[in-house]
Amino acid sequence: MTTSISEHFAGARFGGPVSAIRARAAADARFLRALARSARVDGLPHSELRATNARIAARNVLDHARRMSSLIPAAIGGIQPAEMVD
Fold it and tell me: Which domain holds residue 47?
């Protein structure tokens, strides 16, 4: 059974790509924050720097997911280019 690309992106088969993007981003951010917590207590060199980098990466993952989840509905709806004005 084949589906069109718009049905695929609209979530007709998979429950919606926006929810999948957000769920994956939340899981990745949770993992990165746990990594930051463990980096602070492991006693290895530059632990604070590694913890900060992990927290920043978690923030970037969530920001990217937020941007992607706002673009997909616009792509499904078929945004029309602005009319040319003479």
Answer: 16-75
Is 11 a domain residue?
Answer: no
* pTM of the full structure: 0.65
At residue 17, φ and ψ (nearest 5 deg) are: -70, -25
CA-based R_g, the chain, Å: 19
The pair of three-digit structure tokens given for residue 10, joined into one six-digit string: 């609209």
In a domain? residue 24 = yes
The string of pLDDT tens digits covering residues 52-76 is 999 999 999 999 999 888 877 666 6
The count of structural domains within the chain is 1
Q: Which two tokens stand for residue 76?
A: 């499904």
Q: Which residues, including other chains, have CB under 8 Å from residue 37's CB and lie 6 or more apart? A: 51
Residue 55 has which token pair? 């927290």
